[in-house]
Amino acid sequence: MKFRLEPHHRNVPDDELIQDLSRVAAELGSRRVTIDQYNERGQFHATTLTRRFGSWFKVLAIAGLEKTRNLNISNEELFENLAEVWLKLGRQPRYGDIEGGESRFSAGTYEKRFGTWRKAIEAFVSWANEGAEVSATPPEGQKSANRRTARSPNWRQRALVLLRDGATCRMCGARPEHGARLHVDHVVPWAKGGGTVMENLQILCERCNIGKSDLDPQGAG
Hints:
The chain is built from ten helices and two strands, in the order αααααααααββα.
């Protein structure tokens, strides 16, 4: 076994960083590159560029690309992301955690929406605690009320189920830090009368959710 140092990017010239971003844009065939797209395809990490130039918008401007501000991100999407990061870390996320690649959205996105990072955290806690009365464990096989609900849970329900179930698959115990992709699943399938309500929702990893569907073709959450 050979031990190798990971590349050290502190002394990479500015031009090389911008050229790599331009390369990713060309591969995508787009005048816009998001942080997630760059992290997936870039030679460096987006935080290397934002620390060098100040912000992702400034990086895009230097590269002659268009801003990627997404005005359609809902508060619920931002809150669900915070729930995922909070549970993954096992503590309240700090500004550096969000900028360090743990989050799907930048800390700047939260600051622009709520004013400051602290206010974003306060808004999330207030929002999440409004649903704290939900039961800790969904009843086994219990059907929800007869009234018909929407098939897909909304962002608020997704975040609250993540919080309640500790971002852990209820069948195998897999968590995001294990590489698991988590899904919100219906305990009693929606097609069989199960409602999209908190007591009938649970967290399953992708593998267990697919396995459940294989056992019961009509039972996918």
